Amino acid sequence: MKTIAHIGFGAFHRAHQLVYGQELADNDNFPWRYICVNLNSSRDITLLREQNLRFSVLQRDDNAEQVCDVNIVQQALHPEIDGLDYVLKTLSQTDVTIISLTVTEKAYAMKQGFQFLDEDFGYIRSDIQNPFSPRSVVSVLANVLYRRMIHNAGGVSLLSCDNIPQNGHVLKSALEQYIRKAYADTVLLDWISEHVSFPSSMVDRIVPAMNSEARHLLEHTLGHSDACGVVCENFKQWVIEDNFINGRPQWESVGCLMVDVVAPYEMIKLRLLNGAHSWIAYIGTLAGCETVAEVMAIPVFQQAVKRLMLDEQSQTVDIPSGFELSSYADSLLHRFMNGLLRHKTSQIAMDGSQKISQRWLLSLKTLLENERVCPMLEIGIAAWLIYLSGRDLGGNEIDFQDPQKDYFRKIYKNAQSTDTAALTILSEFNAFECSVFQQAEFQQRILKHCQGLRSVGIEPYVANILETIAS
Ligand code: CS2
């Protein structure tokens, strides 16, 4: 039996790729097994083992509620429990022909719009010195490929399922840059070019982090507790580049789209869905809204999100034939309003330094270069800059999480005012390294939005801007 090994047994993987796999298995069309690996906390792996590798996914919206019982995981591993060598050995077995990933943007350890390996990130520098005791995701994968080469273990497809544009290319580039630094020669790179493929994929499903309310609901629905179970929306989508070097499941038979080029789907999803999500997250956090649905219940914000999607972001995407952009935007608004899910603004706001480039800045750059006005994108940036101060408008601390937190903290601490801190970030932070963002007019507009949001208040300020645009 062929095996998919997956790195990142988080809520999203459980509710997305494992549900697709389970649907195939339920149709007797899944001659594959899953091995799930975590490299960060071992807690979820322990819990999964305690429940015999089974768990359930409750999928719900206003119209329907359905449970998927997942039983296709055959092994769950963690280096702290099983030993690093055993994990690496398992991933290097011949029957593992796909290794998929949901590890979030930062684990790719790339900077400047995912172009260059960030050697200062996490364990990368120490892994470059000790590539045979890897700790970071990229170096674990490099080590697995090295072992596969030595043992002639055959081809493998590395399938990225993270919200990064051209995620397959980014993964390949991260690995190549790392291997060039960590390994003495190019033998491994030559082997990779013949034996490894890097399909890109666009994944979509709203899966809030579990909280006690969701756990109770799940327990009530199932009639028993489930420490690994998740609650998510009914909608799901997976568009996959059909570029597998050593076989793949028949994902198309459960509704996945197998395509030659994923980029257009990915761009639409990243800019409209994720771009709107980040906007909702920062504006919502500053406005004191705890969830996405709460933000969307405020008409001004709903109107602003619609404007962001249809008048700004959608002007920058290529639309695949047959794709209905306005009904896509409507369906996104509907999904964001799903009050049955408590999708926290603080969850989406996390790791913004890794997200805003693909969600906002690439489209903003295109729009500005074409002399288009983009108030909603610019207000989003202003809200993010205020969020980075670590305080909301009332001066209360924000639960602020970002891999660059220390860097932003230091800027705010050393700056004479919040405005100078915001200006320093706009001038120095690598995501803004582009001439349009370095122009004084752009930076002044953002500062004006920061001041407006602070002095007028979030909702009235956004309302004023919407009114000005309309008039
Ligand atoms: C969200 C995504 O947390 C975030 O950044 O924007 O996880 C989003 O819910 C998914 O991409 C939806 O498919």
User: CATH homologous superfamily of the largest domain, by name?
Assistant: NAD(P)-binding Rossmann-like Domain
Alpha plus pi helix count: 22
- The coarse overall form would be globular
Number of domains: 2
Order of neighbouring strands in the sheet with most strands: 5-2-1-6-9-10
Helix content: 40-55%
The CATH topology of the largest domain comes to Rossmann fold
CATH class of the largest domain: Alpha Beta
**Main beta sheet, described?**
6 strands, parallel
Roughly how many Å is the radius of gyration? 22 Å
Number of strands: 14
Amino-to-carboxy terminus distance: 64 Å
The CATH architecture of the largest domain is 3-Layer(aba) Sandwich
Weakly predicted, low-confidence segments? none
Task: Give a structural overview.
By secondary structure, the protein is an alpha/beta fold. The chain folds into 2 domains: 2-259, NAD(P)-binding Rossmann-like Domain (Rossmann fold); 263-470, N-(1-d-carboxylethyl)-l-norvaline Dehydrogenase, domain 2. The chain has 22 helices and 14 strands. It has helices at 11-15, 17-26, 43-50, 79-82, 84-91, 124-129, 137-150, 167-182, 187-195, 212-222, 263-286, 292-296, 299-312, 325-336, 345-349, 352-369, 375-388, 405-414, 418-428, 435-438, 440-456, 458-470, and strands at residues 2-7, 32-37, 55-60, 65-70, 73-77, 96-101, 110-111, 116-117, 156-160, 196-197, 201-204, 230-232, 237-241, 257-259. A hairpin with a 4-residue loop joins β3 (55-60) and β4. α13 packs across α22 and α18 crosses α19. The longest helix is centred in the middle third of the chain and has 24 residues, at 263-286. The protein starts with a strand and ends with a helix. The mean pLDDT is 97. The structure holds D-mannonic acid. Residues 163, 204-206, 273-274, 277, 347-348 line the site of D-mannonic acid.
